[in-house]
Write a structure and sequence with these properties.
Layout (H helix, E strand, L loop, with lengths): L4 E3 L8 H4 L1 E2 L11 E4 L5 E6 L6 E6 L3 H4 L4 H13 L4 H12 L6 H34 L13 H17 L4 H15 L12 H22 L4 H27 L5 H6 L1 H19 L2 H11 L4 H13 L15 H6 L18 H10 L5
Antiparallel strand pairs: 1-5, 2-3, 3-4, 4-5
Helix pairs in contact: 3-4, 4-5, 5-7, 6-7, 7-11, 8-9, 8-12, 9-11, 9-13, 12-13
């Protein structure tokens, strides 16, 4: 067994992959701990402020059940992530949803996971529909009659492919190849959606939520007289920086739709580029859904409960790594505002385990944005 190592220094990741992806464990000691790949492409866990020590522990993923007394849900989640052998945020999120869907985290979490998976399927369908529509208008100068339901049946897909035949020939490919490329492209864009969609997809909702959180915490901090106000201002600065960074990445990811012909004709190179943009966007918003839900839960509570929520949010705050945002204005100032160390799930001013906060953390994990 590999025992935890690496404690004693402030964790300063240089890239998203080093920061890792937040995992919704129900075991309090592992709340929002992060999974990442080590130098040998094996999964490992980073745990902050463990046992009250400043810094981070790093634990081999396969050793986690030997070191911590995990709930049944967390054992299943640990195994699901191990089976995927990936630390990419979409893969971790899918492992979390599939595990929650088993009911091991309770009926509320099960229902939320089922609804999230259904909603995700609907967002993929809608995004593909709008992408096909937009691309075909640009490629043919006309408009093919499409229905969302066409993408859910074999006959509908064949009808679309028949309509693509002439365009595909002009691009030097078959109708099947053109359909498959547009379908994959729509899948990549689904977390963002397409311009003109009335429904906001998940990542768009998160970006908007991060902006709203910054405003809410700034107003709260301006009226609070405790040390938690300093933490709240720091969180708000990180939120605004993250929102701005995420919006730029979102714009870059959707922009290639404007020159769909070049993307489809040079598919291998183009798909690598916008897949990278989407992955960076996923990394950027990772961990923020939990934060938004935790603050939403605290907004109508008393001041001490709000201060406890601010402290827990500050502890798990996802900082944009320096190499990901090089030459970005205000990066250094934003990082400096998050130097204070806080400990996991303790009262904001007592230093003892906050049982009520643990209960609320577990409650918000069953919800979704």
């Amino acid at each position: 067994m590999n025992f935890p190592k690496g404690a004693g220094s402030q964790f300063q990741p240089a890239k998203f992959e080093e920061r890792g992806t937040a995992v919704a464990f129900t075991t309090p000691a592992l709340s929002q701990a992060r999974v990442r790949m080590d130098s040998r492409d094996n999964l490992e866990l980073t745990v902050s402020a463990f046992s009250g020590v400043k810094g981070n522990y790093v634990i081999r993923w396969k050793d986690v059940p030997d070191i911590f007394s995990l709930t049944m849900h967390d054992r299943a989640l640990q195994e699901a992530i191990l089976a995927r052998n990936s630390c990419l945020p979409p893969d971790i999120r899918m492992a979390m949803l599939e595990t929650a869907k088993t009911g091991l985290a309770g009926p509320e979490a099960q229902l939320s996971a089922e609804e999230s998976l259904t909603e995700e399927e609907n967002e993929v369908l809608l995004t593909r529909y709008y992408l096909f529509k937009s691309a075909l208008e640009k490629l043919s100068g006309g408009e093919m009659k499409l229905n969302v339901s066409d993408f859910t049946t074999a006959s509908g897909r064949e009808r679309i492919k028949s309509g693509l035949a002439g365009i595909a020939k002009g691009l030097g490919m078959t109708a099947n190849e053109l359909y498959e490329r547009l379908e994959r492209w729509g899948g990549y864009l689904a977390p963002l959606g397409m311009p003109g969609m009335q429904k906001e997809c998940r990542v768009r909702r998160l970006i908007g939520g991060i902006s709203g959180l910054a405003d809410s915490l700034t107003q709260w901090a301006d009226t609070d007289k405790s040390e938690a106000s300093y933490l709240a201002h720091g969180i708000a600065r990180v939120a605004l920086f993250t929102e701005d960074f995420a919006r730029d990445l979102a714009t870059a990811a959707v922009r290639p739709v404007e020159y769909a012909d070049r993307v489809l004709a040079n598919w291998d190179k183009a798909v690598a580029n916008f897949r990278q943009d989407i992955e960076r966007l996923w990394w950027t918003v990772d961990g923020w859904e939990f934060i938004l839900l935790l603050w939403k839960d605290a907004e109508d509570r008393d001041r001490d409960s709000q201060r406890a929520a601010v402290t827990e949010i500050y502890r798990v705050l996802p900082i944009i790594p320096e190499k990901e945002a090089m030459n970005r204005p205000n990066l250094r100032a934003m990082q400096e505002s998050t130097r204070m160390q806080v400990r996991a799930l303790e009262g904001w001013n007592s230093g003892v385990l906050d049982i009520e906060m643990i209960r609320r953390v577990e409650t918000v994990k069953r919800r979704r944005i």
